[in-house]
Each structure stands twice: as structure tokens, then as C-alpha cells.
Design brief:
Catalyzes a reversible aldol reaction between acetaldehyde and D-glyceraldehyde 3-phosphate to generate 2-deoxy-D-ribose 5-phosphate. Belongs to the DeoC/FbaB aldolase family. DeoC type 1 subfamily. It is found in: Cytoplasm. Pfam families: DeoC. It comes from Nocardioides eburneus. By secondary structure, this protein is an alpha/beta fold. It has one domain: Aldolase class I (TIM Barrel, Alpha-Beta Barrel), CATH 3.20.20. It has an eight-stranded parallel barrel, surrounded by six helices. β6, α7 and β7 form a beta-alpha-beta unit.
């Protein structure tokens, strides 16, 4: 099993509450440095932020509904990168996925990919809890074809729920060994983190990182 320090290196330490303040983001960054997480993940309006070279910065895009037009998502992603984001976590059009319009999902992802080319890391949030297995597979294939670097389970905001071992395993099986898989939404304990990693996750989206890594009583949230 990975150690807590090793798990920390897989965590995007996340603060996406709409009432979050800049002081809250400053505290998030300080905690991320202390805990040794991989990155912080924030809303675009919080950029730019000041972080040490050891810490990456991720920003969300089309969040949390995914119903923004592709051109708006592309512009939002590009602005976030200009303002210092190293990684973009975009939400797909979930309605298109439910209608099995995978070509539209592919085009949506491709529009953002074109706006933020490599080396920017692009993660595609599929909201797996509202999808069938067939839909998860179809979306993951579309994300791969569009040039994504990661597929990601959830926003953490949908009432249907967040990450599951089953979804992570299916996503890993679909994208193969070379693409990243991020488990987010409801990952609050060390045991849950270990289970997601065992299922194939290579990144974790966590808001309560301290509680997870220390074994403290977990709180709610992302």
C-alpha cells in the first residue's frame, strides 16, 4: 500500500466552494505545501495565485454543469492558463453524453484541447455517477481521441454522487495504461484513497486532504 506521503503526491488539494475567499485560497496553498500535495485546484476567478515551484496549479472549466458552449469553455481555459494554471479540469456536456452524442463530446473536449495545448494538462470530468457503463466507455474513448491527458470521475457537486471503485476501474480499463485517471468526489479517507488507487486512479481530487492523510474524522465537501 502507498504511504500517506506517497498518496499526498497524487492529490489535487481542492477548494471550489462558491463562497470561498482569497484568504481561503491562501490557506489552501499553505496547507498544500505543508502536506506535500501535487497541486491546488481552484476556481478561475481566484487566479493568479502565488505558489512554490513544487506545487502545480489547476483550474476548473465549464464547472460544475458542463452546459457552457465549447467556445466559452475554450476561452475560459485559455484565460486560466494565461493567469497561471498548469492544468485544466473541464466538465463535458453531460446531456450530450446521456444522448450518446459522443462525437459532440469529442468536439467539446477538442475545442478546449486546441485552446490549451500541451504542456498544459487537460482533465475531462465525466460525472460518472449519472452514467451507465456504456456511456462511461463512450465518453472515455471520446476524451482519448480528443487528446485529453486524464479522465476524471466527478465534479463533487452532483447529487448523484462522486467516485466509485467500479467507475475508476472501468475508466482505467477503457483508456489503457498511458492516460491518467482522477478519482474525485467523496474521497475522504485513507482507505477510500487506497481503494481508488488500487482500482487505477493516478490522481485524487480531495478537499479534506489533511483529514484524509492523518486519519482525522472526515468532513463533507468535494
Amino acid at each position: 500500500m502507498p504511504t500517506p506521503a506517497e498518496i499526498a503526491k497524487l492529490i489535487d488539494h481542492t477548494l471550489l466552494k462558491p463562497e470561498a475567499t482569497r484568504a481561503d485560497v491562501d490557506a489552501l496553498i499553505a496547507e498544500a505545501v505543508e502536506l506535500g500535495t501535487y497541486s491546488v485546484c481552484v476556481s478561475p476567478s481566484m487566479l493568479p495565485v502565488t505558489v512554490p515551484d513544487t506545487l502545480k496549479v489547476a483550474a476548473v472549466c465549464g464547472f460544475p454543469s458542463g452546459t457552457h458552449t465549447s467556445s466559452v469553455k475554450a476561452a475560459e481555459a485559455a484565460e486560466s492558463v494565461r493567469r497561471g494554471a498548469d492544468e485544466i479540469d473541464m466538465v463535458i456536456d453531460i446531456g450530450a453524453a446521456k444522448e450518446h452524442r459522443y462525437d459532440d463530446v469529442r468536439a467539446d473536449v477538442a475545442a478546449v484541447r486546441d485552446a490549451v495545448p500541451t504542456p498544459t494538462v487537460l482533465k475531462v470530468i465525466i460525472e460518472s455517477a449519472v452514467l451507465t457503463d456504456e456511456e462511461i466507455v463512450g465518453i472515455c474513448r471520446a476524451a482519448v481521441e480528443a487528446g485529453a491527458d486524464f479522465v476524471k470521475t466527478s465534479t463533487g457537486f452532483h447529487p448523484a454522487g462522486g467516485a466509485t471503485e467500479h467507475a475508476v476501474h472501468l475508466m482505467r480499463e477503457t483508456v489503457g495504461p498511458d492516460l491518467g485517471v482522477k478519482a474525485s468526489g467523496g474521497v475522504r479517507t485513507l482507505a477510500q484513497a487506497e481503494a481508488m488507487i488500487a482500482a487505477g486512479a493516478t490522481r485524487l481530487g480531495v478537499s479534506g486532504s489533511r483529514a484524509l492523510l492523518t486519519g482525522a474524522q472526515p468532513g463533507g465537501g468535494y
